[in-house]
Design goal:
Immunoglobulin-like; 2 domains; Aminopeptidase; alpha/beta; eight-stranded mixed sheet; 17 strands
């Protein structure tokens, strides 16, 4: 009887020491979300379409037409936005010479990504968060560099989201660094993103998350005729492409097939996005990308960074990679008239809320371990404080092994916890959180003793 009373008292203590917390919106981020403008997004896309074509192989000498004129305009917009940043936002066109590859490049080109960096305010915080869209587009023939190609949605929508996030966020300061980039060469084989991801790996950038936006501004589908602007997809890889041979045994042993960096980022995008953006459901897709297609997040994934693709729920293939024409009563072509700018506003706000929450949050906790030295129905977790950021405490996340999302979020100010749940029956993770409730990405524990 005495043992039973002690056990009851212990569980009472545990349950009351780690109170489950309802997450509130950060007022600063809430205000930023309200500033995202569908009118601004529409004006960006109108300008991008007016360049006629943005094919990567198109002219770079004409001041009003082609990829060269388009990227110069994006740079000018970044520089205009920078005036409100007190010197924290700087922009340039990062170029490299790319030769004929026997695939989708038949002549030497000057490949350029337009990059704007909002420098973090904490000198001890080297984390980087990236939002990306691709500036280039294509007609039916990817090698057609002269014909008109509007590219309103693919990927004017992603590029517009990048510009709008920069416009709103540059008026605020964040401990960590945020990079806004419109890349070239996506339609030619993810060339610009590959160049940037390889550079980041070589130079040891501490990239914690990449949000790639590609085709995110239309609300209707071809063939099925679904019309819905309340859902958006987030694609994420399962088993990591990077160093799977080294990590495969641990992944299999502990059942972590759904807990890689990209999958954790996708869960974070869903939770934070739905927290701040009304009437939007974030649908996680357990694939790195769609069938027969590729996106600019993939080169980052292949270099070991956490990266996901954000794209509209229902695609319309009449308006992707198509010459503008009327055929059998169907209007083909990626024209602005098929955009839903309110939908694009919500998807842009999804990006902004996540970037801001990540950049304001502390870094991830270090050395997160689950104790496996004993057979027990309790779970003992231990971790160390993050390398950067002011920490109020930590959230312990847990979910059943069959659940796609975290189901419980428990706050503690300590760096260890004993929970009345079996480590065999649940997945756990730990986030660092600051005074304003901004959480780091979750860290799944490794086995420790």
């Amino acid at each position: 009887m005495k043992k039973q009373l002690l056990a009851t008292a212990f569980l009472f203590f545990i349950n009351h020491s780690f109170a489950q917390t309802t997450i509130q919106r950060d007022p600063e981020i809430e205000q930023m979300v309200k500033e995202v403008s569908s009118d601004s997004l529409q004006s960006y896309i109108k300008t991008l379409v007016a360049f006629g074509t943005r094919n990567t192989l198109s002219t770079q000498k004409n001041p009003r037409r082609g990829i060269g004129a388009a990227r110069n305009w994006v740079l000018s917009r970044f520089n205009q936005i920078a005036k409100q940043s007190n010197g924290r936002l700087t922009a340039f066109i990062d170029t490299t010479t790319y030769g004929p590859d026997g695939k989708r490049v038949d002549t030497p080109i000057n490949l350029g990504n337009v990059v704007a960096t909002l420098k973090g305010t904490d000198i001890n915080d080297n984390r980087i968060f990236i939002i990306s869209g691709h500036l280039d587009n294509m007609r039916t023939n990817v090698m057609d560099r002269t014909g008109d190609a509007p590219g309103a949605n693919d990927d004017g929508s992603g590029s517009a989201a990048v510009l709008e996030c920069a416009r709103v966020m540059s008026k605020h300061s964040f401990p960590a660094t945020v990079i806004f980039v419109t890349v070239s060469g996506e339609e030619q084989g993810l060339l610009g993103a590959t160049y940037m991801a390889n550079k980041a790996k070589k130079e040891n950038w501490n990239i914690e998350a990449v949000l790639n936006n590609d085709i995110m501004g239309s609300n209707n589908s071809s063939e099925t005729n679904i019309i819905d602007n309340t859902k958006v997809r987030v694609f994420s890889e399962g088993l990591p492409f990077y160093e799977l041979d080294k990590n495969g045994k641990m992944i299999r042993q502990f059942g972590l097939e759904n807990d890689g960096k990209a999958r954790q980022l996708a869960r974070y995008v869903k939770e934070v996005g739905e927290r701040y953006v009304d009437n939007l459901q974030v649908v996680m897709i357990y694939r790195n990308d769609r069938f027969l297609r590729g996106g600019d997040h993939t080169p980052y994934v292949e270099n070991g960074f956490a990266a996901v693709r954000i794209t509209e729920m229902d695609e319309n293939y009449y308006h992707q990679h198509q010459d503008v024409r009327m055929e059998k009563g169907i209007q083909y072509g990626d024209l602005p008239q098929f955009m839903d700018f309110e939908y694009l506003r919500k998807n842009t706000a999804l990006n902004l809320s996540n970037l801001a929450n990540l950049a304001k949050a502390p870094a991830m906790p270090q050395e997160v371990k689950v104790d496996v030295k004993n057979l027990t129905n309790l779970t003992v977790l231990n971790w160390q404080a993050p390398k950067a950021g002011k920490v109020k405490g930590y959230y312990i996340l847990m979910r059943e092994t069959t659940s796609p999302v975290w189901q419980k979020k428990i706050f503690t100010s300590q760096t260890s916890a004993t929970l009345p749940y079996s480590k065999d029956n649940y997945f756990f993770a730990v986030q660092a959180v600051n005074e304003t409730g901004n959480e780091s990405l979750p860290v799944v524990p490794t086995a420790g003793r």
